[in-house]
Amino acid sequence: MSKNYNYEIGYESLQKDFERYQKQTPRGVGMTRKGQNIYLQFKTPNTARKQYACECPFTLDGMVEALKKANKVSNALKSFTSETEFWAWYDKEIKEESQLADDKITFAEAIAKVEDDFWSRLSRTKRKRDRNNPSDLSSWYDTYGGFYKHLPQNKSVNLADIQTVIDKQKKGTRSYKYVVSAMKKLVRINKRQDILEVLDDINVTQAEFAELQSINLEDFLSWREKTLGITASLHENVNLDTRKAWLWVFSMQVVYALRISEIFAIKNLTESYKTKDGTVIPALNDLENTDNLIYIGEKTVLGTTVKTGNRIARPLIPPKYPNLMDRLDIKIPLLPSNKPESQKSDTLKRFYATSARRYLVKWNAPFTQTHADRHLGNINGMQAGIPLEIRAQSMGHTPAMNDSVYKKRQSTQTTIDLLLSSNTSAIDFVTALNQVKKLVESQLSQREFAAQILAIIYQKNQKEIIKLL
After folding, report:
1. Which pLDDT score, from 0 to 100, does residue 7 have?
2. What is the CA radius of gyration of the chain?
3. 150 or 45: which carries more pLDDT confidence?
4. If we measure between CA atoms, which residue out of 121, 157, 125 comes closest to residue 140?
5. What pLDDT was estimated at residue 418?
6. Nearest residue to 418 via CA among 379, 386, 388
7. Among the ranges given (1-5, 69-73, 212-216), the one the predictor scored with the smallest mean pLDDT
8. Which of these, 102, 98, 94, 22, lies nearest to 58 by C-alpha position?
9. For 210-254, what is each residue's pLDDT tens digit?
10. Nearest to 307 by CA among 435, 182, 97, 127
11. Mind listing the pLDDT tens digit for each residue in 278-297?
């Protein structure tokens, strides 16, 4: 959505989207980028392959439109016999030089076009959007509908009313950036270049940010034990089952660095799960399962979609707490049983995050942002010496995101812990295995114990290690 959209979703992600659209172009017609615009590449009977403007900006919207135009050009090159006729067609249909915007269209009609475009396009996770999916409905409202509802529906599209809605948000905030982006989408789809040029000049740089909380593992463990009544007495009316369930959820965030909703989308908590390619992921509660991998599906038990589902995540255990999974009862799954009272899409989408925050406040947690637990999990992985790429893959985002955004939550104590407790210079597993193999040759009775140590340090399967020893 305009040149500023790069900042909103991350340049790296936008570039990957562009590469995906490039692969979908028809044979003989390509797409390339020059500055903040997309160009089509093709040759005609009398001209070598060159780049041609197609009036599409380097945005998600622009990529979709450029792909449509690439297909049109491919068909036109096959049907026109005169190159003069082809270029006349190109100027009209692709460069849209003779097309006039409809300045009589109402806001309601203009919004309908944006909505049609939204539902016809795949989600960011390459999934077909569903009008019955609460997550998709909420995404429409958060991105567009929540802003468009303030526009006078029966009036013709005009800059003054758009500006009035924009001014409802405080400049320099994330909401201000989002409302400008939504309005740009509205006028771009409806070809109101005159208004778009004005909106392009608005500075949407975010200057105000929410305070990002962080927590260290010692404080989390202390709060958990106090909340469960292990180190403090509880009132007789306390619902201990609810506390155990939600504290298991928060503990899963710490161990696997998950988003709160992803815990409710895990497929192998109590039974093994077979992936599409036939790989079996053992149940988490299986005591024979020492890898403790989890498979996160696309949807939660409520039917809401998660941000980056259909992935495998691994435990991130810091060297200072090798028994962390046992201490937090990770292998005894206990999902909360409470359900939302309303079936409204927004309520369903935010239910887990809202419920989690309510309990964090109610139980006097040293943090109120559930992402603080996810960040702690990432720190645990850093201390364990797990490579950036592996942590990012397990957490469901890019290495760049992990290396930049998550460092914003790094407190002074976190920095100290990383400096003093990180295991970044450990020898690789193969080298360690060979060294241990030599040691146990003269002490075969210690073979199983040595395998157990290696399994803990390198997060490997103990039985497989015994075979190698």
Report:
1. 36
2. 27
3. 150
4. 121
5. 64
6. 379
7. 1-5
8. 22
9. 788 889 999 999 999 999 999 999 999 999 999 999 999 999 999
10. 127
11. 999 999 999 999 899 999 99
Q: Tokens for 68?
A: 């449509």
Q: What is the 3-state secondary structure (H, E, C) of 298-355?
A: CECCCCCECCCCCEEECCCCCCCCCCHHHHCCCCCCCCCCCCCCCCCHHHHHHHHHHH
Where do the domains of the chain lie?
5-94, 107-200, 217-421, 429-468
- Could you tell me the two tokens for 430? 């193969």
Instruction: List all residues 6 or more positions away from 40 whose beta carbon is below 8 Å from its beta carbon.
Output: 29, 30, 31, 51, 52, 54, 66, 69, 70, 73, 94
The type of residue at 363 is W
Closest among 137, 136, 150 to 179, alpha carbons compared = 150
* CB-side neighbour CA atoms (13 Å) of 350: 12
Fold topology of 217-421: hpI Integrase; Chain A (1.10.443)
Phi, psi at residue 299, to the nearest 5°? Answer: -130, 150
Per the rule left: phi > 0, alpha: psi between -120 and 50, beta: everything else, 334 is beta
Q: Please measure the distance between the N-terminal and C-terminal CA atoms of the chain and give it in whole angstroms.
A: 57
Structure tokens at 18: 């562009």
